[in-house]
From TrEMBL:
Pfam families: LplA-B_cat. CDD domains: LipB. Pathway: Protein modification; protein lipoylation via endogenous pathway; protein N(6)-(lipoyl)lysine from octanoyl-[acyl-carrier-protein]: step 1/2. This is Octanoyltransferase. It is found in: Cytoplasm. InterPro entries: aa-tRNA-synth_II/BPL/LPL, BPL_LPL_catalytic, Octanoyltransferase, Octanoyltransferase_CS. Belongs to the LipB family. The active site is at 188 (acyl-thioester intermediate). Keywords: Acyltransferase, Cytoplasm, Transferase. Catalyzes the transfer of endogenously produced octanoic acid from octanoyl-acyl-carrier-protein onto the lipoyl domains of lipoate-dependent enzymes. Lipoyl-ACP can also act as a substrate although octanoyl-ACP is likely to be the physiological substrate. GO terms for molecular function: lipoyl(octanoyl) transferase activity. The record marks 154 as: Lowers pKa of active site Cys. Substrate binds at residues 82-89, 157-159, 170-172.
């Protein structure tokens, strides 16, 4: 169990925990996030952790390079407005969008990103997967010595945007997506490492099992939740 510092809310108000059972189109998710962030910044709604899956698609962050979209016709492409470069979303990947008020969580974006990485690492540990952070590479990585010296695969991507100290976007964790869908991009602009998933690593788990572990570790790092 990680002993890293937490970034609990100063008032311990619970974060709403919502799971969408059907695939959510990306423009719909983006519109809802923007609306919720605006209302949260005005104090009209509470914090939200929204768990969902998207149809197969690519999203471009604010640092995305055109050359990293290697097959523009493979899947729909959307501008995300978050930090980072190109990434993939699709069925079998758990997306966790975090709309949190960082004014109540220390106003430290770096600490927030580290806490998201730790959430993933601790969740992976519950399934006997060793995830690690890397300086200069946001996300969570798994060593793959069977692929060669110093080879690693990314199992979770992190991209965030902060507006008026309210966060949105968040985390994507590969449970059992079609990894061949990554072939149309250079994921996060990194050419010398690959991508992996629970299934690819031989760890079989269901989405509800992953969600349960995520919620348990979220509450330990970020504070209490209430299901909506």
């Amino acid at each position: 169990m990680s002993q890293n510092p937490t970034i609990m809310r100063d008032d311990q108000r619970p974060t709403h925990w919502e799971i969408s059972d059907k695939l959510v189109e990306y423009p719909e998710a983006l519109a809802r996030m923007k609306d919720h962030v605006d209302r949260l910044a005005r104090g009209e709604v509470g914090e939200l952790a929204w768990l969902l899956e998207h149809p197969p698609l690519y999203t471009a962050g604010t640092s995305a390079k055109a050359a990293d979209l290697t097959d523009p016709n493979a899947l729909p492409v959307f501008n995300a407005g978050r930090g980072g470069q190109y990434t993939y979303h699709g069925p079998g990947q758990r997306v966790v969008y975090l709309m949190l008020d960082l004014k109540h969580r220390g106003r430290d974006v770096r600490a927030f990103v580290r806490a998201m990485e730790q959430l993933v690492i601790d969740t992976l540990a519950d399934f006997n997967i060793v995830g690690e952070q890397r300086d200069g590479r946001v996300g969570v990585w798994v060593k793959r010595p069977e692929k060669g010296f110093n080879k690693e695969d990314k199992i979770a991507a992190i991209g965030v945007r902060v507006s008026r100290w309210v966060s949105f976007h968040g985390i994507s964790i590969n449970l059992n997506p079609d990894l061949s869908d990554y072939d149309g991009i250079v994921p996060c602009g990194i050419t010398d490492q690959g991508v992996t998933s629970f299934e690819d690593l031989g760890q079989l788990a269901s989405m509800p099992e992953l969600d349960s572990a995520l919620r348990r570790n979220f509450e330990r790092i970020f504070g209490p939740t209430v299901r909506v």
